[in-house]
Each structure stands twice: as C-alpha cells, then as structure tokens.
Design brief:
This protein is mostly helical and 250 residues long. Helices cover 79% and strands 0% of the residues. The protein is globular and about 50 Å long.
Length: 250
C-alpha cells in the first residue's frame, strides 16, 4: 500500500483549514510525482514508483478542481487559473515519454513552476484564514512537501542528472524540515496525538537523513536510493496525519 492510499478521500472542501491542507498537499504532490518519475528512470522500485506517480497525478487533478471551486477570493482563484496551463505541461512531461536522465532538467523546471503556484495558493488561504492554527496547518503540510523534495533532489543526483544547485536545494530542504519539526513540536496547540506522530516523524527523519548524507558514496548506492525512496513515503504518511490533526483543531 502506498502512503497515498491512506490520504483522506473526502470529495469536497468544507472549511478553510481543510482548504489549506489540500492546497499544501498539492505542493507535496508536485514533488512526489517528480520523485517517482526519477525512481522509474533508475529502476528503483519501478512498479511501485509508477503506481505512486499515477495516483499522485489523479489526486492532484481532483484537488485542483476542488480548490478552484472553493477559492474564497478572486485573488486565490486567479492563482489556480494561472496554474492550469503549467499543470497541463507538467502532466504531459510526466507521462508523455519514458523517463530519461537527459529530460530531468526540463521535468524539474516544470515541477518548480507548479510548486511555486501551489505554495502561493496555500499561503493566500492561510492569510485569508487569519488564524494561528491555519499557520500550523500550512507548516505541517509543508513538511510533506520537504520529505518529497529532499528525495527528489537525492534521486536526481544519484542518477547523475544535470540539475544546477541540486545539492544546495537538497541541504536547504533538510535544514527547513528539522527547523519546522521543532516549531510544530513546541506549538501550544500540539495535542498529545500530534506530539506522538511528530515523535515518529523525528525517528524516521534520523534514518532518512543518514541516507541523504551519504549521497555519492561508492558502495551501496542502489540500496540507499531505495531507502531514500521508501522512507520519504513513510515520513509523508506521518506528516499527512499530523496536518490532518492540526486541520481539525478549532
């Protein structure tokens, strides 16, 4: 079972916190699809990677429609309308061709454009909400994205793909994840259930970060790449639960 199979499947958005959660999940999906594409190209758990990519595309499509319909202001709606052609281009790149190392830079350029607008929409919804808990939903949701972003850059470098600043972006995402994890653990709104899940995320992160830090070492590269791929899914699953718990706080 993929982590995605456990993500909430409600058909509509009925609260601002719910909208922030789904908008933030779009950020994660933009990175997760690229990660899965890179894994497919390298034959890393290729069958599971393809399943993850196709399920992520379907969920992105579904939530994209919901967010456009829900958009509580013209400004937020404009953000999602602007995303439409970029998402179409990204989707075509993901499924139009067999993943090849030479196509990596083009794919990651497209995923960055989709991510930028997905993040913009999430920030706009958080600001529209104007509540402290909205900020925590956004922050917890961003951890999902960072788990996928770190794995994506790791896999691009493991493949030897020509991606400028990949190591810098990888290390930046690692730092941001650890900082945000502490903020979430120290938040007065963090219930016992939230603290428990964050503790699990912290344990998984230690294992994940050890694998990330060994990028480029000669032996065991294929095994470490599989570890990075699978552990990023486990962290995603935990952080999705945390985001859901924060989104249900009043």
């Amino acid at each position: 079972m993929t982590a995605l199979a456990t993500l909430p499947a409600q058909a509509q958005i009925n609260s601002l916190n719910g909208a922030i959660n789904k908008a933030g999940r779009q950020r994660m999906l933009s990175q997760r699809m690229a990660k899965a594409w890179l894994a497919m190209g390298q034959g890393i758990d290729a069958e599971r990677a393809e399943k993850i990519m196709l399920e992520s595309m379907a969920l992105f499509d579904r939530q994209f429609v919901e967010l456009k319909v829900y958009a509580p202001s013209p400004e937020i709606r404009r953000t999602y309308l602007a995303m439409e052609p970029l998402w179409s281009d990204y989707k075509s790149a993901l499924i139009g061709h067999t993943p090849e190392r030479s196509s990596t830079l083009n794919l990651l350029t497209l995923d960055a454009q989709v991510l930028k607008l997905a993040h913009q929409g999430t920030e706009q919804l958080e600001q529209y909400s104007g509540r402290a808990v909205g900020k925590l939903v956004n922050l917890a949701g961003r951890q999902r994205m960072l788990s996928q972003r770190t794995a994506k850059f790791y896999l691009s470098q493991n493949w030897g793909a020509p991606v400028p600043n990949a190591l810098m972006e990888l290390n930046k995402a690692r730092t941001e994840f650890v900082t945000a994890l502490q903020t979430l653990m120290n938040a007065p709104q963090a219930t016992e259930a939230i603290q428990q899940q964050l503790g699990l995320a912290e344990q998984q992160w230690v294992f994940f970060d050890q694998a990330l830090s060994r990028l480029g070492e000669g032996s065991g590269g294929a095994r470490r790449a599989r570890d990075v791929f699978s552990t990023s899914e486990q962290i995603l699953q935990i952080m999705d639960k945390v985001t859901g718990l924060y989104s249900r706080l009043t």
